[in-house]
Design brief:
By secondary structure, this protein is mostly helical. The chain is built from 8 helices and no strands.
């Protein structure tokens, strides 16, 4: 086998390993969500998924994904369910506003879309950087409100990537079962890795 063929084979093997790891992680996330009865499972499952990706992508540590996930799941259970209902309330408010505005005042729909996009970005940054920020949840949320403006290129990239991913799910629904949360958050971590090392890593050492 030539050197170029060996390199290609190695790259393909690494790619397949990553894909299988992301499928496994997404299934763990689904299991964590259902184990918490959905409502109480989304918070700890998502933070546990983020913890795994942070170790693999930002800290580049080899970990046993399953045990590490469930260790984080148990550790973060109470803490995550103290604030997850805040996010439920915000998204319920947006959904009710959407229903009312579309029926009675569609002219202000663009403003609601902008607000929804901002809430989506803040939510993503909150979960991605939750373990990086110090302080109480209120401080973490305040810092997350700043990040879409501090990292505008990354924020636009996240929106474009999510738009493409949603189109893919609409075309191939099985993608949602295999990669619904693992792929988007993995891409978020890759997109923000440089910013993490520039802005946060030195402060947390």
């Amino acid at each position: 086998m030539s050197e170029s063929e060996s390199t290609l084979s190695h790259a393909l093997m690494r790619g397949m390993h990553w894909l299988s790891s992301l499928v496994y992680l997404n299934l763990l996330w689904l299991l964590g969500v259902f184990a918490g009865g959905v409502v109480l499972g989304i918070g700890p499952a998502t933070l546990s998924l983020c913890a795994v990706l942070r170790e693999l992508i930002w800290n580049q540590r080899e970990i046993a994904v399953g045990p590490f996930f469930f260790q984080e799941y148990q550790r973060i259970w109470k803490e995550s369910n103290r604030f997850i209902f805040l996010f439920y309330g915000i998204f319920l408010f947006l959904w009710l506003d959407f229903r009312v505005i579309m029926r009675f005042s569609p002219s202000i729909f663009p403003a609601l879309v902008i607000l929804a996009v901002l809430v989506f970005l803040v939510t993503c940054y909150f979960f991605v950087f939750y373990a990086v920020f110090d302080g109480p949840v209120r401080t973490k949320l305040k810092n997350s409100l700043l990040l879409p403006w501090l990292f505008p290129a990354q924020s636009l990239g996240m929106l474009a990537m999510i738009g493409g991913f949603l189109l893919l799910i609409m075309r191939f629904p099985v993608v949602a079962v295999l990669f619904l949360m693992s792929v988007p958050f993995a891409l978020f971590y890759y997109m923000l890795r440089k910013k993490y090392w520039q802005n946060f890593r030195g402060k947390n050492q």
